[in-house]
């Protein structure tokens, strides 16, 4: 247990030194509270003596009490300021984190929109490529079918199936894309693609002139 402060201890502490060691140190709040209590006790004792010397010491004690109380109030105000600053810093940190989170969320939304746009573009390119492949196949297998107005795979399938007499317009309109594709594939399998190679070979080959064996062997 720490021993009570004596008047000599109080004087040493007021000069910025601890009574129990030789190192300079700033008074703590607990030390100041203890000193105030000790000085108030000393003031009561001095007031009870009724001498001039006691009155002079009492005045000195009052001055020291005033200084200590002012110092203690200053410490309390500093602690309150630190707490306010800490709260302010915490609020600033929270606001900063919220702002950063909002920025990240906006970036995520932007990337999601960009990704969706890229997927749509990829799907469009795939459909265009598939449509072109189907159109070329239909032209090769069904050259007499009018595909001028066909803009999609469904249009191509429908045009071929209707013009080849597999279905009528009414039936085609009520069929799903998958049903049309299946019907087209069935017709596709039974129809060989048109090839002009044989025609070219046939036209390029000149027929040989019939040989006149009678004339060749001296006849008329």
UniProtKB/TrEMBL annotation:
Key words of the record: Coiled coil
Residue stretches in coiled coil: 51-131
Keyword Coiled coil: yes
Biased composition (Basic and acidic residues): 196-212
Top-level taxonomic group: Bacteria
Positions of region (Disordered): 196-220
Identification of the protein by name: Uncharacterized protein
């Amino acid at each position: 247990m720490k021993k009570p402060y004596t008047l000599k201890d109080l004087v040493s502490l007021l000069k910025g030194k601890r009574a129990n060691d030789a190192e300079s140190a700033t008074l703590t709040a607990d030390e100041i509270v203890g000193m105030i209590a000790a000085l108030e006790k000393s003031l009561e004792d001095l007031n009870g003596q009724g001498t001039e010397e006691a009155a002079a010491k009492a005045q000195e004690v009052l001055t020291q009490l005033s200084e200590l109380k002012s110092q203690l109030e200053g410490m309390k105000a500093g602690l309150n300021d630190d707490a306010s600053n800490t709260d302010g810093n915490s609020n600033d940190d929270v606001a900063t984190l919220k702002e950063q989170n909002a920025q990240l969320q906006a970036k995520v939304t932007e990337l999601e929109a960009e990704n969706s746009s890229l997927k749509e573009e990829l799907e469009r390119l795939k459909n265009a490529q598939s449509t072109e492949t189907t159109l070329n196949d239909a032209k090769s297998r069904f050259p007499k079918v009018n595909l001028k107005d066909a803009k999609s795979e469904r249009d191509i399938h429908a045009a071929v199936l209707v013009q080849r007499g597999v279905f009528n317009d009414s039936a085609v309109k009520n069929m799903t894309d998958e049903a049309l594709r299946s019907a087209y594939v069935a017709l596709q399998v039974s129809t060989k693609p048109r090839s002009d190679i044989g025609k070219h070979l046939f036209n390029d080959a000149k027929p040989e002139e019939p040989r006149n064996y009678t004339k060749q062997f001296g006849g008329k």
